[in-house]
Design goal:
The strands form three sheets. An eight-stranded mixed sheet has the order 9-8-10-1-11-14-2-15, with helices on both faces. Strands 3, 4, 5, 6 and 7 form a five-stranded antiparallel sheet that branches. A two-stranded antiparallel sheet has the order 12-13. It is globular, with a radius of gyration of 21 Å. The chain is an alpha/beta fold. The protein is 37% helix and 20% strand. It has 16 helices and 15 strands.
């Protein structure tokens, strides 16, 4: 049997007053996801286990079928795995955003979705300068998302770095950034790296050019999401499956790599609304000719909600439905092989707060061994009405991936 999981990052939301109490998924035109619901099973599940912080790291670990309580050590080491970075016992990986600060506030945690080619120049040039002053090395990623590896051979310990609280920058959009600087045993080192970057970045030609173009100024590195390399079992060990992961986001790619899956880079995959949708779904469906499992991740709904942009979130959900779910569903309908399809978000990204939240989110699945329930639409309220609920997402995914039948 073949398996296909499609993730609309942060699609789920709370009822919106401007939408007369409906959610963005409910209002969006999503005929493909509705058909998945009509053909199979719909319900709620919790991708963020109780007591863990809401985020794409934990949410996607859950959707891959892992229990985050057993294997989550931080976001950054998963991204490091994607880049082939092997952390030694004295190193801790941090996510490093290039952000835009303005009027004492976190203005834009993406620096206007700074293009990768420009961001790489900033990371490399500023990284060299900071590396001469601090025990840190920077690695370029995609757009605003990069890595900082701190070595503890001199100064603070690994434990000090791990225990220091670092606020995700997407949690404080529009808020005073100084109130959210790292706090804890290694705060002095981490804060110093960030504050010195604020002195250096505005002087760089790339930063000046961005300002001249009317884009948010890339004027600070922001470190967060730290951790050491996790221990994750492979898909071969857990499910006896081979597979691929298709995403623009190093975090998701890193989880797949840790799970022994192939991460396929798709040209034009940006992690934004301009991503190469067709390239991503074509890559995944083509891979199913020689592997058992494909995981396709779309970031745009999450990014739209972080911006507080209702119209853009609805559009990104509709794009996900039309450009990812529809071709995948047609593939399932026409495939001579037994295949299962699951559609879900990895967490709530609330427009009201512009950040992630815990809570139940809707899933829809169809295919081999999944009996239709008579549900006509896919959204939070239709899923709630079915009465189906998984408090631990990994339990749902394990059942989905082991071919166990789903009956009403």
């Amino acid at each position: 049997m073949k398996y296909l999981i499609l993730v609309g990052d942060g699609m789920a939301d709370y009822p919106i007053p401007e939408l007369n109490g409906k959610t963005p998924i409910q209002v969006a035109h999503t005929p493909a996801m509705d058909e998945v619901a009509q053909r199979g099973r719909v319900g709620l599940f919790c991708p963020i286990p109780e007591g863990l912080p809401p985020g794409s790291d934990i949410g996607n670990l859950s959707l891959f079928g892992f229990n985050p309580r057993d294997c989550f050590t931080g976001r950054a080491p998963l991204e490091a795995a994607r880049q082939g970075i092997r952390l030694n016992s004295s190193q801790v990986a941090f996510r490093c955003n290039i952000v835009s600060l303005q009027d004492g506030k976190m203005y834009d945690f993406t620096s206007g979705h700074i293009p990768t080619e420009l961001a790489s120049v900033l990371i490399q040039d500023m990284g060299k300068a900071l590396g001469n002053e601090f025990p840190v090395h920077f690695y370029p990623g995609v757009s605003y998302r990069h890595l900082a590896i701190i070595d503890t051979k001199e100064g603070c310990s690994v434990e000090d770095l791990e225990k220091t609280y670092c606020t995700p920058p997407h949690d404080i959009t529009g808020q005073a950034w100084r109130e959210h600087l790292p706090t804890g045993p290694a705060e002095s080192l981490i804060q110093s790296i960030m504050l010195v970057s604020q002195k250096l970045l505005p002087q760089h030609p790339v930063a000046r050019e961005r300002v001249q173009q009317g884009e948010p100024e890339p004027n600070s590195f922001w470190l967060w999401g730290q951790g050491r390399t996790p221990e994750i079992k492979t898909y071969k060990e857990l499910f006896n499956l081979t597979g691929v992961v298709v995403s623009a986001v190093d975090l998701v790619k890193g989880i797949g790599i840790c799970a022994g899956l192939e991460s396929i880079d798709v040209p034009g995959a940006t992690g934004w609304i301009d991503t190469n949708y067709q390239g991503k779904i074509d890559t995944a469906l083509n891979a199913l000719s020689h592997v058992d499992f494909a995981y396709v991740h779309i970031e745009a709904p999450d990014e739209s909600a972080h911006q507080g942009n209702l119209k853009l979130k609805i559009k990104s959900i509709e794009d996900f439905d039309e450009k990812i779910v529809r071709p995948a569903l047609e593939y399932v309908k026409q495939s001579p092989e037994e295949i299962r399809l699951l559609v879900a978000p990895d967490h709530i990204t609330a427009l009201s707060t512009r950040t992630h939240a815990t809570g139940a989110v809707p899933f829809a699945m169809c295919g081999a061994g999944i009996e239709p329930m008579g549900v006509s639409e896919y959204h939070e309220f239709s899923a709630q009405k079915t009465g189906i609920y998984y408090s631990e997402a990994h339990e749902l995914i394990k059942k989905f991936l082991t071919g166990m039948p789903f009956y009403i």
